[in-house]
Design brief:
The chain is of the alpha/beta class. The chain has one domain: inorganic pyrophosphatase (n-terminal core), CATH 3.90.1640.20. Helices cover 40% and strands 9% of the residues. A 6-stranded parallel beta sheet has the order 3-2-1-4-5-6, sandwiched between helices. Helix 6 links the parallel strand 2 (106-111) and strand 3 (131-134). Helix 2 (15-25) runs antiparallel to helix 12 (305-323) and helix 5 (90-102) crosses helix 6. It is globular, with a radius of gyration of 18 Å.
């Protein structure tokens, strides 16, 4: 690709491959339990309609520009239940960070102090040197500085405020007392003309403001307005330039990484099933919890690691087949 193509985002991408990755990462596999089921495909269609193209393609094209300073935002610790956080978010963040760094971007990760060490452990495990920045509950000056210093912002399983500006878990429990609200960071970044991406799976994450009206109209039962103390429900109103919906936010980040491999026509950027399995088990050693069960195990949002690795394998195959030289059959 030429520098002019890169600057203006004119990378040829396999649209069919991107659409199939979209479908793949939105295959819902949650069991009956504490997390809501049945949201994924309707949410995907809402986001797809708003974007007007494959979500993987839309997110990947945000990086069709010269190397940038990229801030990834993730981490979801809950005192007494998930002391250093759940594994959905951190695993996908380091996978995405690896691909972005390989493309020449300067990457850093922002999270809460309680959730910081697992990120550092995962980064050490894959041999990637990326700064992990810790943010206090009310550190608005740091949010404003980071908004000014970075070019692209990507939230991965990071809660966004509801209509009252309060962050809630998917079942209506407030997280405001122990987790920094990053609405100001993303709104400031957008005001400054920076690019923003949200990756989520429940409607309560940063970026889901893109589909807030559709969610509230079509799926009010999952807003839990009757159980949230402020009455605002769990759905976030915080918008991003691109919203990527997936079965889990980790899988959304994996899908974006596959999109980057298609964008750059470089299979080496793509995540692998072996790496997926390894990270899931490393996460257990670092104390990361499966948010679907509340247990310390390598499952993610109630989905076993082998199933997640199978999805990664299918994505890798889609990318490899897309990038393979065309062949002509003669009979």
């Amino acid at each position: 690709m030429t520098d002019t193509q890169a600057e203006h985002g004119h990378f040829p991408m396999d649209v069919i491959a991107c659409e199939n990755i979209d479908r793949l990462i939105n295959v819902e596999m949650r069991s009956h339990g504490s997390l809501p089921r049945g949201l994924k495909w309707p949410m995907y269609l809402m986001a797809r309609d708003a974007a007007g193209m494959s979500l993987v393609e839309a997110a990947a094209r945000e990086f069709a520009r010269p190397p940038s300073k990229v801030l990834l935002v993730s981490g979801a610790a809950v005192p007494g239940h998930m002391p250093v956080g759940e594994n959905d978010g951190p695993l996908g963040s380091v996978v995405l960070a690896k691909a972005l760094a390989a493309m020449g971007n300067q990457v850093s990760i922002l999270t809460d102090p309680a959730a910081a060490e697992p990120f550092r452990g995962l980064l050490r495990a894959i041999g990637l040197k990326v700064e992990v920045i810790e943010l206090g509950l009310d550190d608005v000056p740091l949010q404003e500085r980071l908004a000014a210093e970075n070019d692209i912002f990507c939230a991965i399983e990071r809660l966004g405020g509801n209509t009252n500006g309060i962050i809630y878990g998917a079942t209506g429990v407030s997280r405001a007392s122990h987790r920094a609200n990053l609405d100001h960071l993303f709104r400031t970044a957008r005001m400054l003309g920076k690019r923003t991406i949200g990756i989520g799976d429940g409607g309560n994450e940063i970026g889901c403001g893109n589909i807030y009206e559709s969610l509230s109209r079509e799926m009010p039962e999952y807003a839990y307005k009757d159980t949230t103390p402020c009455g605002g429900g769990v759905y976030s109103v915080v918008e991003t330039d691109v919203l990527l919906i997936a079965n889990s936010s980790n899988m959304g980040a994996n899908g974006l990484t596959a999109g980057l491999a298609l964008l750059r026509q470089d299979l080496s950027l793509c995540h692998t099933p072996d790496a997926e399995l390894a990270l899931a088990h490393i996460g257990v050693g670092l104390g990361l919890i499966d948010g679907g069960s509340g247990k310390l195990r390598p499952w993610c949002d109630g989905v076993p690691p082998e199933a997640n690795a199978a999805i990664v394998q299918a994505m890798h195959t889609i990318v490899a087949q897309s990038l393979a030289p065309a062949s002509t059959r003669q009979f």
